[in-house]
Amino acid sequence: MILIRALSIVLIVAAIAFKTAASPRHEIAFVQAERLVVWQDGALLGEGRSVSVVSHPAIVKNEFPGSGELALVSGAVTSNPGQMRLKIASNSGFAIQVGDARVASQIQARIVSVGLNAQSSFNAADVASGIVFHQYVKTAIRPGAPETQAIELELSWTGAAPSDVRIIAAAP
Known about the structure:
By secondary structure, this protein is of the alpha+beta class. The chain has three helices and ten strands, in the order αβββαββαβββββ. Helices cover about 20% and strands about 30% of the residues.
């Protein structure tokens, strides 16, 4: 009787082990693409892997025929000529790049503030390649609203306003 019970237990354990060994195992990995959310002077500018920044004076100069004066939205105009403020939240590192290296040498980037759930870890600018600011890690360090995960930068320049400023996400 004991032999039959012991044999039954061995058979049950063997059946469970066989079923476990025969079942397939699936692994799923989620990959999220790099993404930026950018505000310029308090207004949402854009989101995606790359965001182009167009200075407001360039927009105002291009009036539409017969339209009169183009009035910009209140709060979205840089109060001081020769500078702009950008607030950037990113799930990866990013760089602020200007197409012309000569223009890049005239632009200075300064961190104005870091959000409650954000971090700032940046490298020195590489003006020769047109990069005026390089954040090498994602801005978020804790969950929260995107604006609390953003860093705010002030770009200032001498001479003509840069027209080809782009913010480009790096691979996470």
